[in-house]
Amino acid sequence: MALTGPRMALPLFSALAAAAVFATPATATSYENSISVRPYAHITPEGTITLSGTYVCNDPSPAGAVQLMTVVVQDSVRLGGNADEEPVCDGAVHEWDSHARIAWTPGLHAGEAAVEARLQRVNRAGGIMPKSVDTLAEDVHGAEVVDHR
After folding, report:
1. CA distance 49 to 79
2. Which terminus in the chain has less CB density within 10 A, N or C?
């Protein structure tokens, strides 16, 4: 049975709407939140990699905790970390630092790397397990790793 006229319009409209939703790039700066990571990272003599930057957070809901996550990727090695302090969502610009031990993740060294920083809200359903994690802001780009070992 062939679809004609009005019968064809609904499936066609649905397909176009779905394509538009999935093709639209997601923006992570809702509620005027933003984050930036500096274009350099440092490896300390003790074997810790440090990233830093700034963020602005206007928490849209008291329903979840806000956290700042970081990642360094270099030569197929991926190391994640958390900010040293919990983000403050008061609308002001704040500095942040993130430290991660590289002892269990050998391979990070001086040179180019990719760095990522994300400001996330963790929504809990009443227990310790998160119900969902929403990205409020993110910054991803290349950076220079400076090794002080």
Report:
1. 9
2. N
- Give strand pairing partners of 50: 42, 99
Does an H or E element contain 141, and which?
Answer: strand 130-147
SS3 of 21-84:
HHHCCCCCCHHHCEEEECCEEEECCCCEEEEEEEEECCCCCCCEEEEEEEEEEECCEEEEEEEC
Please state, as a whole number, how many other Cβ atoms lie within 10 Å of the Cβ of residue 80.
13
pLDDT tier for residue 11 given thresholds of 50, 70 and 90: very low
Looking at the chain, the whole-number percentage of residues with pLDDT higher than 70 is: 69
Residue positions counted in the chain: 149
Exposure letters 20-44 (e unless 16+ CB within 10 A, then b): eeeeeeeebeeeebbbbbbeebbbe
Residues 91-116: tens digit of each pLDDT = 999 999 999 988 766 789 999 999 99
Here the tokens at position 130 are 């998160």
pTM (2 decimals)? 0.71
In one-letter notation, the amino acid at residue 128 is I
Q: Nearest Cα to 34, choosing from 145, 142, 147, 138?
A: 138
